[in-house]
Design goal:
The protein is of the alpha/beta class. It has helices at about 35-40, 65-75, 85-100, 115-125, 145-150, 170-180, 200-215, 240-245, 255-260, 275-285, 295-305, 305-330, 355-365, 395-405, and strands at about 1-5, 5-10, 50-55, 110-115, 135, 155, 160-165, 165-170, 185-190, 215-220, 250, 265-270, 335, 345-350, 370, 375, 385-390. A seven-stranded mixed beta sheet has the order 4-12-11-10-9-5-6, with helices on both faces. Strands 13-14-17-16 form a four-stranded antiparallel beta sheet, with helices on one face. A two-stranded antiparallel ribbon has the order 1-2. α12 (about 305-330) runs parallel beside α14. The chain is globular and about 60 Å long.
Length: about 400
């Protein structure tokens, strides 16, 4: 809530009726020429300008109507000075995590950040020293690697088992690696990007037990938590056991759920006061202060009024996945999509197509004019895989499938 002469405006609640937009995920909206990383940086990444991009994890859908309405109210007000997030903002975050993930937050645990990777970098500096070991489960979101290494920490890789087109955790290897490398910090990706696993309660409890036993702090990246496939449920790692809560920093954001990445808003949940104080000290040292005023308004509006949009989005993404699977089954033999349990990204094993890595990527670029995410970017375990973004209109996805068939045709 904030006041202007003669009135009080709630920037996060539903705006006047005339601002309300409709939800149409089939509508194709051109993003070229908008400064979009996804669409306007092809040449810089070695792709032709005509390449169809389904690589980076942002959606080709407008934000939910309540978000657009809240941003319009802010825009109409016209002043974008420093922001002190209102109580309603923090309450909206707490309510969302309680209602959707059965996790109760205290106000002091919720700390703002411009992004999850920024928060990870702060955690690495706060809880480890140069030369200390930080572990990841590979293949994994590629900025994990560089953030660890550029902070002069020892990158420790613990591969996820891949057998019969399924990913599982080798807990013997997990424990042995923690002990052998004297790991201080573990970066948990949950749901896992890029392989799409939603970890079970049993898996998370085993991870927690091993980290507690070995005095390892856990940074749990849960940014994809709201988008799960049918019959899969995200579980908050810190919420499974009070002991987990005392060794964990949970990182999240509405940006993946509601396609708000450009607004630079995220949160860290830190229950342990010592960990929280250490993280906040690094945050202060970074020079970061108040969050983005538009990001705050969008976040609150998303968590207060975005549920219907998200429900429809998940139905649409599920249908897109079914379409892709059927198309590949009929027309692109040798490509095997992995079960998508979470995220809106499809991880595809392309080794069966019979091409070398070099030829595979050459065919995608030169013949298909298609820009997917080469799995090798996520580590050596990702070689021969491609990651495809399902969060786009069906017309766009159909075009992508036609290009993929051309690229892999003999």
């Amino acid at each position: 809530m904030f006041r202007v002469p003669g009135q009080t405006i709630n920037v996060a609640s539903a705006a006047p009726q005339q601002l309300t937009r409709t939800m149409n995920f089939d509508n194709v909206i051109s993003r070229r020429g908008s400064g979009s990383l996804k669409y306007d940086s092809a040449a810089a990444h070695g792709y032709p300008d005509t390449a169809l991009p389904l690589w980076v994890a942002d959606m080709d859908f407008p934000a939910a109507p309540p978000i657009l309405d809240a941003l319009q109210v802010r825009l109409n007000h016209g002043i974008f000075g420093y922001v002190d997030p209102p109580d309603g903002y923090y309450q909206a975050i707490s309510n969302w995590w309680r209602d959707n993930h059965n996790y109760e937050l205290r106000r002091e645990w919720i700390q703002d950040s411009p992004g999850v990777m920024f928060s990870i970098a702060l955690a690495i500096r706060a809880f480890t020293r140069p030369g200390d070991s930080v572990m990841v489960q590979t293949p994994v979101y590629y900025p994990f690697y560089s953030t660890i290494q550029l902070n002069n920490r020892n990158l420790v890789e613990c591969p996820i088992n891949y057998e019969k087109k399924e990913y599982t955790i080798d807990f013997e290897a997990f424990q042995e690696t923690l002990q052998r490398e004297k790991v201080k910090l573990f970066l948990l990706c949950s749901p896992h990007n890029p392989v799409g696993r939603v970890w079970t309660q049993m898996e998370l409890e085993k991870i927690g037990s091993l980290c507690i036993r070995n005095n390892v702090i856990v940074v749990s990246d849960e940014i994809h938590c709201d988008i799960t496939a049918p019959n899969h449920k995200h579980r908050v790692f810190a919420g499974l056991d009070p002991r987990h809560e005392q060794i964990t920093i949970t990182l999240t954001s509405p940006t993946k759920t509601f396609n708000l990445s450009g607004l630079q808003i995220s949160q860290a949940f830190i229950a342990n006061q010592d960990l929280r104080n250490a993280w906040l000290k690094e945050k202060k040292a970074s020079g970061y202060d108040e969050p983005n005023v538009m990001g705050v308004a969008a976040c609150q509006a998303a968590y207060e009024g975005g549920r219907e949009w998200l429900t429809r989005l998940k139905v649409y993404v599920n249908a897109n996945e079914a379409y892709v699977r059927e198309f590949i089954k009929q027309y692109i033999p040798g490509v095997a999509p992995i079960e998508r349990q979470g995220t809106y990204l499809l991880w595809m094993d392309c080794w069966g197509a019979g091409f070398s890595l070099e030829e595979m990527n050459r065919r995608l670029i030169d013949r298909g004019k298609l820009w997917l995410y080469d799995g090798s970017a996520f580590g050596v375990e990702g070689e021969g895989f491609q990651r495809l973004n399902l969060a786009c209109p069906r017309e766009t996805l159909t075009e992508a499938m036609m290009r993929l068939a051309v690229a892999f045709s003999r």
